[in-house]
């Protein structure tokens, strides 16, 4: 694919700087979703098995260049030790003498975790000097952080130019799975795009209509399109100032031969609360006091019928307020339909994004999807057809 993998590198006795994404959700010091950590295991296992010494470079949260105790990666050491089933040492900086000593002292079979790269303000500026400091710690650079590959930072981009570089197993798996589903996708292709805002996914929508046969729009974003079609949405989440843009996307889709699917009926409540009293109404009948919280049964039937006609499905963003019961109904039912079609060998299904993966896990559908990406932002940018700097740097590395 234009970059090297761990198989191309001589790892024996080498210190391998592995850029990982362990930006996992933590509540009261406890990791609530360890998907990203579990998915790193093949890379760590393979480096250790080949006699390499893994040194992990990672960011955590957005500390903005300040050392913030609550964003220290030290709190992840026990979780990593459990996952990797090996000793994980910690250095409290990702560059400098202490990190160099720790890297030097690392024994075969051990893993070294370096402190949050974003404690250095220059990390997010892709500073080559900071990258050079990191490069001193290793012999080889391995980027396994697909979900951070949309960032051109010292630890994802500049460093790949300084050391012999390769992609890790997760990076490979992510790119191969996305390439397989979207590179030359089996048609018809359907994309489900949900979530709150049109403004953040505008470029994505504009790009997708050129690539997919059906575009199912859900969540708050769908309301903006209903407004563009002159329908009332009451107190629903909607970006009214984006309505002309939404109208342009509708016109462009028609010209491109892409069918945009908006809700034909909606579940409306007056409060944004679990089990708020609600009713099902045609999409053009939302009352002034009403809030659209989910797609209705007619919409769901249309979505299921489209899934049945499709060969490839790409999913990012829930169809409704999935965090509130029962407004997760359309998301869950559509996810289970996609899972069943995938199980039956009729559909290739790929999903990504934190909310999406949480929703698919909650519905029990995730296990049957062809592929679940660990990435949110990077997955979207990949879908838009953008070059990811972290991936591009690997291609240019020798
Ligand atoms: C993520 O969690 O989406 C990645 O780790 C990237 O984080 P960022 O959006 O703070 O760059
Ligand atoms: Mg993000």
UniProtKB/TrEMBL annotation:
GO biological process: gluconeogenesis; glycolytic process
GO cellular component, one term: cytosol
Functional pathway: Carbohydrate degradation; glycolysis; pyruvate from D-glyceraldehyde 3-phosphate: step 2/5
One example GO MF annotation: ADP binding
Cell location: Cytoplasm
Top enzyme category: transferase
Protein family according to the UniProt entry: Belongs to the phosphoglycerate kinase family.
The protein's name in its UniProt record: Phosphoglycerate kinase
Organism: Ruegeria pomeroyi
Name of the coding gene: pgk
